[in-house]
């Protein structure tokens, strides 16, 4: 017999449909077909799969294995690596609170942030999201840093390839997002995630990750085979309709962030999504953020006299600092 929590999650799961995403093959020589599929996905849901991206399944499996090794450490060891003011390091369960209106507590997940490695003597370390990473001791996790640095490098290259297709879908030059002030030196954050197995119950405000949209340009998500991700294509609908996104082995689930919605004048969507916990689950998110100094404003190809810009220009650092402040616990609370 199911308990109340299990009945709640089953009821919610049964009432939500599974949404089948467009699948973008990065190895396809038919660029126009890929751009067409991608544009359709960006207009419809803001989510799509990316396959044949050049990162082997064996290496992705290794990254997941190393991630699990970290999360298996005792909490005392993990807290020694607590995230710093540069947002590098460990984030405990409930550290992030993505949907305070509907969540009783924060997110029932733990994580680990890894960014672009910027040495202490680099002048860029004065910027809020640049600096050296926090790494576990090699005595505790040998080879861990090397795996994560390689994963960060390789996924960033995949992200840039996707950004080129997005540029073409917006009638821009393919290298538009490669500019120095955008992805020439981006704030690219890798985040390891572990959902500890709490059964989510929306009727009680309990979620693996509360409903939210991502902050930046795009997010590349790799998941294990445990379902949990849901999207809401029409966030203003009453009631909201949530659809499951199925895991796809070896693929990235890619979604658009708030900055791309602003750049495209809301033509492309930064879609509301959440995670419902229903057992142990691991995922690896890669948040592709523009440079600190990037000024995000409506693209010329996305505006007209009849369709003027909907958002004022904004410096990306300003936006990102505000979103992190709104959604993460104050570091002083851990003292």
TrEMBL record:
Keywords: Iron, Metal-binding, Oxidoreductase. It comes from the Eukaryota. Signal peptide: none annotated. Residues 185-290 form the Fe2OG dioxygenase domain. GO terms for molecular function: dioxygenase activity; metal ion binding; oxidoreductase activity, acting on paired donors, with incorporation or reduction of molecular oxygen. Transmembrane segments: none annotated. InterPro entries: DIOX_N, IPNS-like_FE2OG_OXY, IPNS-like_sf, Oxoglu/Fe-dep_dioxygenase_dom. Belongs to the iron/ascorbate-dependent oxidoreductase family. This is Fe2OG dioxygenase domain-containing protein. It comes from Ilex paraguariensis (yerba mate).
